[in-house]
């Protein structure tokens, strides 16, 4: 990044390495893609569909299909959901696949859904089946980043985020416009803002420390802390 194409070719030849372009995969995670686009999530959706094609849904009982949805289908997008905010259309697509598999995957005719999906996602003790709601699951995994930033004070990942997004305590929208700021802005939205009641901050308990992590900044002639 930040060098010419000619220099890249020279360095690649000297180091005897191939020249990669964006986006690419690193440890199974796409780097350089836009998670707000539906095409970014196609590998996840296709992976779920390919996994279902190996199972004979019509030969499984209802209990067997519920078990597979909980242990496999809901876990396949876990890696992506831990880092990126999934679009509503992608969540609906995965939810539709889950519902089709639950009510009769593999049958030629379309099966009737006898219960609303929001009731299916309720805990067992409240009359549901305990299947995770995809959208809430994604929001919870992303909100955990803010919780970890407030509770952890060490680690390479913490130092990187602290240096890149220094104002994480007040969770203000950064003025950056690059693809790396898409992740940060999505994180702010899922944690809730003033109009949404700051649902995450309302469930956190702050403890007074020694003051070493308090930072002061001057805005418009006034000194504030965050």
Could you please describe the fold and organization of this structure?
The structure is a single chain. The chain is mostly helical and 226 residues long. It has two domains: 24-137, no CATH class; 139-225, no CATH class. It has nine helices and four strands, in the order H-E-E-H-H-H-H-H-H-H-H-E-E. The strands form two sheets. A two-stranded antiparallel sheet has the order 1-2. A two-stranded antiparallel ribbon has the order 3-4. It starts with a helix and ends with a strand. 13% of the residues are buried. The model has no long low-confidence stretch (mean pLDDT 77).
Give a quick summary of the entry.
The protein has 226 residues and is mostly helical. Helices cover 43% and strands 6% of the residues.
Topology:
Elements (H helix, E strand, L loop, with lengths): L4 H11 L8 E3 L2 E3 L10 H12 L8 H12 L4 H4 L6 H15 L14 H4 L13 H18 L4 H9 L15 H12 L24 E4 L2 E4 L1
Antiparallel strand pairs: 1-2, 3-4
Helix pairs in contact: 2-5
The coarse overall form would be flat
Structural class: mainly alpha
- Main β sheet profile: 2 strands, antiparallel
| Total of helices | 9
Order of helices and strands: HEEHHHHHHHHEE
Question: What distinguishing features does this structure have?
Answer:
226 residues, two-stranded antiparallel sheet, mainly alpha, 2 domains, 9 helices, flat, 4 strands, two-stranded antiparallel ribbon, 43% helix
């Amino acid at each position: 990044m930040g060098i010419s194409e000619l220099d890249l070719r020279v360095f690649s030849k000297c180091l005897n390495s191939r020249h990669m372009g964006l986006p690419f995969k690193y440890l199974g995670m796409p780097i350089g893609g836009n998670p707000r686009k539906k095409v970014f999530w196609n590998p996840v959706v296709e992976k779920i569909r390919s996994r279902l094609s190996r199972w004979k849904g019509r030969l499984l009982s209802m209990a067997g299909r519920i078990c597979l949805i909980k242990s496999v289908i809901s876990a396949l997008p876990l890696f992506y959901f831990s880092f990126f905010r999934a679009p509503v259309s992608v969540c609906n697509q995965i939810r539709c696949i889950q519902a089709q598999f639950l009510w009769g995957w593999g049958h030629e005719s379309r099966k009737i859904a006898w219960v609303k999906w929001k009731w299916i996602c309720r805990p067992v003790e409240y009359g549901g089946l305990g299947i995770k709601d995809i959208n809430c699951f994604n929001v919870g995994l992303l909100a955990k980043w803010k919780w970890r930033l407030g509770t952890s004070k060490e680690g390479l990942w913490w130092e990187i985020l602290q240096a890149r997004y220094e104002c994480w305590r007040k969770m203000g929208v950064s003025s950056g416009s690059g693809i790396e700021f898409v992740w940060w802005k999505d994180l702010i939205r899922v944690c809730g803002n003033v109009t949404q009641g700051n649902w995450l901050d309302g469930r956190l308990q702050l403890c007074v420390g020694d003051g070493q992590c308090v930072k002061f900044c001057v805005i418009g002639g006034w000194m504030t802390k965050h």
